Amino acid sequence: MRKTHITIALLTLTLSLPASAFNLGDLVKQGEKLLEQKPAKSAPSQTTGLDSATLSRGLKEALTIGGERAIARLSTKGGFLNSADVKIPLPGFLDTAGNTLRRFGLSSQVDAFERSMNSAAEQAVGEATPLFVDTISNLTLEDAQAIYNGGDTAATEFFQNKMSDRLGEKMRPLIDQAMAQTGVTRYYDALIDKASSTLPMLGAKKTDLGSHVTDATLKGLFLRLAQEEKQIRQNPLARSTDLLKSVFSR
User: Fold this and answer.
1) What's the per-residue H, E or C state across the chain?
2) What is the pTM assigned to this prediction?
3) Does residue 230 carry a pLDDT above 50?
């Protein structure tokens, strides 16, 4: 067997050398050295042996569970309004003029409008779980491979970049319905009228409230989702299913 290996090694080496370099004794020695060399170890699998289908299911489950937790946090009373990092700001020129309006006696109108927007977001996001889960189902095996070895919020970032438009389209009707129930447009119109009459130099211009609230709601949802994903990746106690433990216990 060893002779066979030497012969193969010699043949390989011979074919790689110019004719002037042929020397049988040297070739034998070099062939023996080739046999003594240990094969290089292959690089460890980045997926820890898990197949693509399992990775995909694990990432979808992480996003689903993370999304459910994020939605639960945001849909409580004050989930948006009382959290500075997700609180929906005043739209358009009101975002910069809000404090000025308060100083001119419009605090109650500004606060009422702000509460109505954030309340609409809290109400609408509470209905978003089925839409969120349905959108997650569109992630592919290739998507899973692309994000598995990313950072602590790679799945959220990938999902946000690829699916936010689709999710926004599904969320918009819920936002519009919630805005109607919380009187967002009514409070907004009243505030704009007061601002125009009290401080006409501000040049009050109306904003597409539906788009403003929808975009801010999604921004808050993805921020909370990123926090939940990070927990699942870093904290074993946050991996509440066997699949999550299998995929994220690297």
Assistant:
1) CHHHHHHHHHHHHHHCCCHHHCCHHHHHHHHHHHHHCCCCCCCCCCCCCCCHHHHHHHHHHHHHHHHHHHHHHHCCCCCCCCCCCCCCCCCCCHHHHHHHHHHHHHHHHHHHHHHHHHHHHHHHHCCCHHHHHHHHCCCCHHHHHHHHCCCCCHHHHHHHHHHHHHHHHHHHHHHHHHHHHHCHHHHHHHHHHHHHHHCHHHCCCCCCHHHHHHHHHHHHHHHHHHHHHHHHHHCHHHCCCHHHHHHHCC
2) 0.75
3) yes
